[in-house]
Design brief:
The complex is a heterodimer. Chain A has one domain: Immunoglobulin-like (Sandwich). Chain A is 19% helix and 46% strand. A five-stranded mixed beta sheet of chain A has the order 3-9-8-5-6, with no helix packed on it. In chain A, strands 2-1-4-7 form a four-stranded mixed beta sheet, with no helix packed on it. Chain A is built from two helices and nine strands; from the N terminus they run ααβββββββββ. Classes of the chains: A alpha+beta, B alpha+beta.
Chain lengths: 116, 520
């Protein structure tokens, strides 16, 4: 069948979309969010994320000292070294507020994640 | 006369030390002298009673009555002192300010003050009983009443004198620091009492020694010597400690120190903590004795790098069938998170076995285990978190082969319910091994209500050899309620009661696991 250029483009796009949709990556749709640790505080202190999807949380520790990202609500506990970045997977979350804290500096390192 | 004086002096001295420290630690508390006085009075009467019924007590508890009584008294006293210390820490700032004004305020919170009476009474009880018995026997073997009385009086004065000196010595410390100093003195006191209690429990056969004698410094500083006795009461020194005494000593110090540090909490939370600890403690003493099935632990697939862990666990079986009743096992371990995916732990296992005649034997060391847990997935990245565990057991008993066991660990939290399953396989290795590969399965679900309190249930199954083809009743199936939690930053507990579902399983099994975690 003779295709116009447009049809070939559309076909390519359709094929690519198909590949993406069928791949495991797309099947486990993830949202990426970031949190920064600076001066033993979390920024943003209140992070809003989507409910019902898995979240890939990138925690970037910009302090020279280590911290432990910990949350009973989210059921996660992970060490992040000084000037290091870690990934924490959370969710899918039901709508609500989830508290977390930095175990080594609990007085200041407090944060919440709000799932909407 | 001098022998009486010496005995009385030694015992009174020990009481005086405890009373002196307690008096110093509670300076500023209204009417504490009154309570301490009541304690001494009650203790004296009590000790006379004990001496009177000495024979009966000895015969009780299968001939271990005296040891059990001593252990229980020590543990109750240690618990009360510990609680009083924690209460004191909470009111520390108030007390170190103005004692005069506080007087009235503190009367309101005078509840813990009566515990002073109880603690003192218990101490007097223990020591006093010995004094009375020795005096009585000396009298009966033809002693001169006057001489005995004089010797006793002399000893008592000496003991009290030392206590008073200690008290005033403590009073010299500046007000700011007196609080911390006495708190720490009390922590050591409690740890020493707990270790001593476990010495009695070992004698009574309730817990294993682990290592019979870790060190022997009886030539350098014996328990009987003057300095030895002081150190014994103050910091719990003993010249030939067993492994479990050392373990209990450091766990007590660690536990109390941790609780003391985070003591900015409400009375309700403190009380809950104490209650939980006491329950666990009682479970430890009364719930553990004979051997049962080794692994009543459902493992999660998580590893924390750099974490040190001290673990103690055990189980007791209950059954109408005498050969299955009251079998017990205890395991003690030290573990370390080497990387963020590999945790390694070494266990020692003790069993209280039964010989062929159906007689109960003492705790025997049965095996050493080396366990390695691997976290294979990032928590939450996949629908289920996966881990793997492999352990090698070296049997310390003749005719028993070694054992290699491996497990797949799966964890999934759904909403507020955490679920863990373990699929296990094992195979004997070495001399006398069978060619069977055994299989097992375990499940745990818990409701994440609160970090300190998570109710749930567990199911454990041992299918036997894959080729053996055992029927359901020949296999071991058990299920029952469990309670999990983390108290503070360092203590985790796991207790449960499993009902036997198949004939081969014991009708009931009480199990407990305690973990102390620390990162250095």
């Amino acid at each position: 069948m003779h295709m116009t250029r447009r049809m070939r483009c559309l076909k390519m796009t359709a094929v690519l979309c198909g590949i993406l949709l069928l791949s495991p990556e797309a099947a486990l749709a993830r949202e990426q969010q970031s949190i920064i640790i600076k001066n033993h505080r979390f920024y943003p202190a209140k992070l809003t994320v989507s409910s019902g999807v898995k979240i890939k949380l990138v925690v970037d520790n910009q302090d020279p000292t280590p911290e432990e990202f910990e949350s009973y609500d989210l059921n996660r506990e992970k060490m992040v070294g000084g000037n290091k970045t870690i990934i924490v997977f959370i969710g899918p979350l039901k709508p609500g507020t989830y508290k977390y804290f930095g175990e080594f500096h609990q007085k200041t390192a407090q944060g919440t994640i709000v799932a909407e | 006369m001098f022998s009486i004086a010496l005995i009385v002096f030694r015992e009174v001295f020990e009481i005086a030390l405890i009373v002196g420290i307690l008096m110093a630690a509670t300076k500023g508390l209204a009417r504490r002298t009154q309570w301490v006085g009541i304690g001494i009075f009650l203790g004296s009467i009590g000790s006379a009673l004990i001496a009177f019924f000495a024979d009966t007590i000895s015969q009780a508890a299968e001939g271990m009555g005296q040891e059990m009584l001593n252990a229980i008294i020590l543990l109750i006293a240690a618990g009360l002192i510990g609680w009083t210390t924690l209460w004191m820490t909470r009111h520390g700032r108030q007390l170190s300010q103005e004692f005069n004004q506080i007087g009235r305020d503190v009367i309101k919170g005078s509840k813990p003050v009566y515990t002073l009476a109880v603690v003192v009474a218990l101490s007097v009880l223990r020591e006093g009983a010995e004094i009375v018995m020795f005096t009585y026997s000396a009298f009966v073997t033809g002693g001169n009443v006057l001489q005995l009385a004089a010797g006793g009086f002399l000893g008592m004065c000496g003991g009290i004198a030392v206590g008073v000196i200690l008290y005033f010595g403590l009073m010299k410390i500046p007000v700011k620091q007196i609080f911390t100093v006495t708190s720490w003195l009390l922590v050591f006191l409690v740890a020493g009492m707990a270790a001593q209690a476990f010495g009695f429990l070992t004698a009574a056969g309730k817990v294993p020694e682990i290592i019979p004698v870790v060190w022997d410094t009886s030539r350098i500083l014996s328990n009987g010597s003057f300095t030895g006795k002081i150190l014994h009461t103050l910091v719990g020194y003993t010249d030939r400690p067993s492994g479990i005494q050392i373990l209990v000593y450091f766990i007590t110090i660690g536990g109390l120190a941790v609780i003391l540090k985070m003591y900015a909490q409400s009375p309700v939370q403190q009380a809950k903590k104490c209650a939980a600890l006491i329950m666990i403690g009682l479970g430890l003493i009364f719930g553990t004795t004979k051997p049962a099935y080794a692994v009543l632990k459902v493992y999660d697939p998580y590893v924390e790098k750099g974490e040190w862990e001290l673990e103690a666990r055990g189980s007791v079986d209950f059954d109408n069938n005498a050969t299955k009743d009251n079998l017990q096992k205890q395991k003690y371990a030290l573990g370390y998170g080497v990387t963020d995916w590999w945790f390694t732990e070494v266990y020692g296992e003790w069993e209280k076995e039964r010989n062929d005649n159906g007689e109960d034997l003492d705790f025997a060391f049965t095996e050493v285990e080396w366990e390695n847990k691997f976290q294979l997935t990032e928590p939450g990245e996949y629908p289920v978190d996966v881990g793997f565990l492999v352990e090698y057991e070296i049997s310390a008993e003749d005719k028993h082969a070694d054992n290699l066991e491996w497990k797949i660990l799966l964890d999934k939290t759904i909403g507020k319910v955490g679920n863990i399953s373990n699929i296990s396989f094992e195979h004997q290795v070495g001399g006398g091994h069978t060619n069977e590969t055994g299989a097992g399965f375990a499940w745990s679900s818990r409701y994440r209500l609160d970090p300190r309190f998570e109710p749930g249930f567990e199911y454990h199954a041992d299918f036997g050899g894959l080729n053996e083809g055992k029927t359901f009743d020949e296999q071991t199936h058990r299920m029952g309620p469990a309670l999990y939690g983390k108290l503070g930053k360092h203590m985790k507990y796991d207790v449960g009661y499993l009902f036997g579902l198949s004939d081969a399983a014991p009708q009931g099994t009480f199990k407990w696991i305690l973990e102390f975690e620390q990162r250095f």
